[in-house]
Amino acid sequence: MHAAPVIELENDPVPIVKIIGAQLKRAMTSDSHRKIVNELDGCFALSSITDPQKVSVNINKTTLAVSRGISPKAKVIIHLDFNNTRVKPRIDGLLRHPLFAIKVGKLLAPPAQDWVTEAKNYWQAVCDQPRVPSAIRLISTHDKFELVLGREDIEPEVTIYGKPKKLLELVNGTSVFVSAAMTGAVAVDASVEHLSVLTEISIKRLLGEL
């Protein structure tokens, strides 16, 4: 087992810094990802191809320091669409630092996760939040598997249908609830109030605040 490195955010971090910090924190639950950090020493940057958002991550084996902008120390700069992982990134510095770039790519890849386990972890993190539903039913449209979070003696106030991958994104802190519902990534049977509450919770988790 490798010790988890410390995630440090800049003072008064902007949203993209919080989001990348939260992403790295989730990755550090994986021993294989912690091992990658232990083998890295240097800085990389992420630059959005759709807006001005830019963020740098400086790694020194025990700490990942996240800050806005592109650091002049960055060995590689990854140009990507933060909102669409299907768009292939372009990497500056790949030829100069190929091994570093490959390891950074592995670091940014999400660790293997099981949506049922992550959903249970999600409930533990959010069940005490104000106005959270007493029970939520998740249904995998892939195999019709159902999971109820919260009270099992009542009819769930919220039901969510989706493919395992989309359910995982909803509960592991990488998807905003209302966006997933509006784009059809998941189907939701819920009141406007519960939709609002779960959206607020998902934003907090995306930013690493919950």
Q: Any overview of this molecule?
A:
This protein starts with 5 loop residues before the first strand and ends with a helix. The model has no long low-confidence stretch (mean pLDDT 94). It is an alpha/beta fold. The protein folds into two domains: 6-108, SCP2 sterol-binding domain (Nonspecific Lipid-transfer Protein, Chain A, 2-Layer Sandwich), CATH 3.30.1050; 115-206, Nonspecific Lipid-transfer Protein, Chain A, CATH 3.30.1050. The protein contains seven helices and ten strands. The longest helix has 15 residues, at 192-206. It has helices at residues 15-27, 31-38, 98-108, 115-126, 164-171, 177-182, 192-206; strands at 6-9, 42-48, 54-59, 63-68, 74-80, 90-92, 135-140, 146-150, 158-162, 186-189. The strands form two sheets. Strands 1-4-3-2-5-6 form a six-stranded mixed sheet, with helices on one face. Strands 8-7-9-10 form a four-stranded mixed sheet. Helix 4 (115-126) packs parallel to helix 5. Helix content is 35%, strand content 25%.
Query: What is the number of E strands?
Result: 10
Strand order of the largest sheet: 1-4-3-2-5-6
CATH architecture classification name of the largest domain = 2-Layer Sandwich
Order of helices and strands: EHHEEEEEHHEEEHHEH
Measured as a percent range, the helix fraction is 25-40%
- Which CATH top level class of the largest domain fits? Alpha Beta
What's the overall average pLDDT, rounded? 94
